[in-house]
Specification:
The chain is an alpha+beta fold. The protein folds into 2 domains: 3-93 and 157-232, no CATH class; 98-151 and 235-276, no CATH class. 41% of the residues lie in helices and 13% in strands. It has a 7-stranded mixed beta sheet. A hairpin with a 3-residue loop joins strand 5 and strand 6. It comes from Kitasatospora saccharophila.
């Protein structure tokens, strides 16, 4: 048994790591909070950059291995510590489970919180309300509800592999991670990712929304960073109207995409039409 297979059996005792062990470069297991002893590993992390094409091979073997591959990015390019992955800045202590939650209710709550209070939890003053109104128009009347599911999701796995190739070609510093999870959405909870902690400290709620998007739009989580996510989208909206409803969901999920990005839902929605990639970033 190779060192890689031995490590992967610790990560997922009931899986078949032999399906991918021989594909892997050198790497190591990571546990939440590396300064603490006795915590089970939640992630296998490559020591160096992800070889081009490896994500796709690992993704094809996922049904056998039970290990979801992630392209992992550090907080800062070139940093030796490779935070948060290499430093174990992960937490599974307080995580609930994604299937505890209704994604539509989570999105409604996210919308209401982001449109009724400021970052400190205080009610918006008149000037802030006016600025917010310009940002979330034309939904000034309140949460518009979740958008309809795509009529067809095409080839979700093919779209995910295409995005992985694009991301690896554009960033030579990405590493490979493996998590014992059925989907990329669930991998975030399983490994204890803490990216949106200033917006949401229960990552299972984030996973619940991502799982819903997997079902409705065929999205797949391909890359995760310190506080960023990259999703493949095989069935992007084809017109401004449908894109606007999805933009409202994105705002409810990650308001920084609008507040610190496009500025308004209308402008943000324009960027979603035909886009085969969704990116999220939390301050």
């Amino acid at each position: 048994m190779t060192d890689a297979e031995r490590d992967l059996r610790r990560l997922l005792p009931s899986g078949d790591p032999s399906a991918v062990a021989d594909l892997l470069p050198t790497g190591r297991l990571v546990s939440p909070g590396e300064d603490e002893e006795g915590l089970a590993p939640v992630l296998w992390l490559s020591d160096g950059p992800a070889p081009f094409g490896l994500w796709e091979e690992l993704h094809r073997e996922h049904p056998r291995s039970g290990l979801w591959p992630l392209l992992l990015a550090p907080l800062r390019a070139g940093e030796e510590e490779f935070r948060p992955w290499g430093t174990g800045e992960l937490s599974t202590v307080s995580a609930s489970e994604p299937d505890w939650y209704d994604p539509a209710a989570l999105l409604r709550t996210g919308w209401e919180y982001s449109t009724l209070v400021d970052s400190d939890g205080e009610s918006l003053d008149p000037q802030e309300s006016s600025e917010l109104g310009r940002s979330v128009a034309p939904f000034l009347g309140g949460w518009p509800g979740t958008a309809p599911a795509a009529g067809s999701v095409g080839d979700p796995d093919g779209a995910a592999r295409a995005l992985a190739r694009e991301l690896c070609a554009g960033d030579a510093g990405l590493r490979i991670g493996l998590v014992a999870a059925a989907t990329g959405a669930e991998a975030l909870t399983a490994c204890g990712w803490c990216g949106p902690v200033n917006h949401e400290d229960d990552i299972a709620k984030v996973s619940a929304v991502l799982l819903d998007w997997e079902r409705r739009y065929g999205t797949r989580l391909v890359q995760a960073g310190f506080a960023e996510l990259e999703l493949s989208v095989p069935a992007p909206p084809e017109d401004a109207g449908s894109a606007l409803r999805i933009a409202a969901e994105h705002f409810a999920f990650c308001p920084d995409n609008v507040f610190q990005g496009a500025g308004t839902l209308t402008e943000y929605a324009a960027g979603l039409v035909g886009a085969e990639r969704w990116s999220f970033w939390w301050d």
